[in-house]
Predict the structure.
Amino acid sequence: IYDNKINIMWLTVSLFNKIISENENVFNSLDTILVGGDKLTPSYINKLRSVNKNITIINGYGPTENTTFSTCFTIQKEYKHNIPI
């Protein structure tokens, strides 16, 4: 991420959760992160937001058959239960 000056990433929820659980600062150089493919876990999203206030986090959703996002929601606050799509 740092060496290649990556500023936007798309990750599946399970990979995102794994990475955040190990190091919530790994995405600090990103401007935008899209997370999708499953229901987001608010605690992991909130953990990223707590260490990186400037990152744009987008919840991307679309059925597998679509192979793209059908809808997206920009996360701009903490959620305790469900994050909208």
User: Anything to note?
Assistant: The helical segments are 13-22, 42-51. The two ends are 26 Å apart (CA to CA). The chain is about 25% helix and 25% strand.
